[in-house]
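Structure in, sequence out. Go:
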């Protein structure tokens, strides 16, 4: 079946442009990108279905690197079904899932189980990561080769740092031999232990245990030294401080195979949002100063930071209704990723092609996935959205099982109107 999506403003992150036109889709892939009136008229006559996009923006679907789904072990927090529905509503067409489940995904059997569940229950694509060390305990390397054969797109211990430098160097060396990507959490584990805020005046006034931004720089410096020694492919999951940026810049200038990401929460919120100990704002790493937030946003704009992700971490009500120090860390973000990221567009920090480069094109490229592009032959994973549509977020309308969003009650701009995966509609706004 062929589908023509016409009267759209096409966002091409690869060519850095926005242009009016149409997309012809056949067999789940983009067949052609049409701009001339005669081409569109001819395609309209032979397409099985024609949809008018109403002059809205049509972009590659988001590839969200670092989504936690509660299967196995914590299905009450998030299942593949609920996460898939939330992703589709947020314009996310590929979820790159984390292995920090209960138990961790550290064997081919567990990875195959997760892949089968995802294939049955999720309406969007799933690209699973596997654990780097067994049990995420940082002592013994997993079977990286077998896990790669089973479909793992990268290896990570989630928010746990492999503290033993020798173990981590062995993991990087082995991953280098297989061409596998290692995703690391850059926080010094000793300094970060027990911390729930960034050190400074605000944390002192609130009496919260805090950690210096230097903990991020120290961990990144160690990792980059090991990457230089081993030649491994490396991705830092979240760079959130200005002090870490010079080390990242040097690594790239020196030709290391290094990329970095940042969560949308650290790009759009700062430490003051914690306010009166609001636990929905408790994240890992903790929210940073406004100076750090601005520096990281500038790094995204210049291309130093490659990826924006949701770092979707569902937590149930019981784990958040606790004193700030004791509450669980993390926030859901699949449905709020795009409207929150559009704050950067409305603020003049990023253009729409730049935004979808870090949301779609770069993560797809880094993981070797086919999506993230508007070119003939690419999968027809697409999102249609209105960047100017205003709304006030009500967390109880979210499709995730868990409702722990820091944007509850926030005024946001940008609504997803429709999402396609492989040319098939998986979400249509009411």
């Amino acid at each position: 079946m062929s589908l023509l999506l016409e009267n759209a403003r096409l966002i091409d992150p690869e060519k850095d442009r926005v242009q009016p036109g149409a997309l012809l889709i056949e067999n789940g892939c983009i067949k052609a990108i049409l701009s001339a009136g005669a081409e569109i008229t001819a395609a309209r006559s032979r397409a099985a279905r024609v949809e008018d996009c109403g002059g809205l923006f049509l972009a590659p679907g988001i590839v969200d690197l670092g989504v936690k789904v509660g299967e196995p072990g914590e299905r009450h927090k998030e299942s593949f079904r609920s996460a898939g529905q939330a992703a589709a509503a947020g314009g996310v067409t590929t979820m790159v899932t984390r292995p920090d489940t209960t138990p961790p995904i550290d064997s081919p059997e567990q990875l195959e189980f997760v892949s089968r569940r995802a294939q049955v229950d999720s309406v969007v694509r799933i690209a699973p990561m596997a654990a780097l060390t067994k049990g995420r305990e940082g002592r013994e390397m997993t079977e990286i080769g077998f896990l790669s054969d089973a479909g793992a797109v990268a290896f990570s211990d989630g928010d746990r740092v492999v503290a033993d430098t020798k173990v981590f160097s062995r993991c990087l060396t082995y991953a280098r031999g297989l061409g596998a990507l290692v995703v690391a959490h850059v926080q010094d584990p000793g300094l970060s232990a027990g911390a729930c805020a960034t050190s400074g005046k605000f944390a002192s006034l609130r009496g919260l245990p805090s950690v210096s931004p230097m903990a991020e720089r120290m961990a990144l410096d160690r990792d980059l030294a090991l990457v230089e020694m081993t030649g491994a492919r490396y991705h830092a999951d979240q760079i959130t401080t200005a002090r870490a940026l010079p080390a990242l810049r040097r690594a790239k200038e020196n030709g290391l195979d290094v990329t970095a990401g940042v969560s949308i929460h650290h790009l759009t919120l700062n430490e003051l949002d914690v306010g009166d100990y609001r636990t929905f704002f408790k994240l890992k790493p903790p929210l940073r100063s406004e100076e750090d937030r601005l520096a990281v946003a500038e790094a995204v704009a210049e291309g130093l930071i490659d990826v924006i992700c949701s770092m979707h971490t569902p937590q149930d009500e019981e784990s958040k209704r606790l004193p700030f120090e004791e509450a669980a860390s993390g926030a859901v973000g699949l449905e709020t990723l795009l409207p929150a990221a559009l704050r950067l567009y409305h603020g003049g920090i990023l253009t729409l092609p730049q935004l979808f480069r870090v949301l779609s094109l770069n993560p797809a490229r880094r993981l070797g996935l086919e999506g993230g592009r508007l070119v003939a032959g690419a999968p027809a994973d697409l999102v249609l959205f209105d960047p100017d549509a205003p709304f006030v977020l009500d967390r109880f309308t979210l499709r995730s099982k868990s409702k722990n969003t820091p944007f509850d009650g926030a005024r946001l701009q940008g609504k997803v109107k429709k999402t396609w995966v492989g040319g098939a509609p998986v979400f249509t706004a009411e």
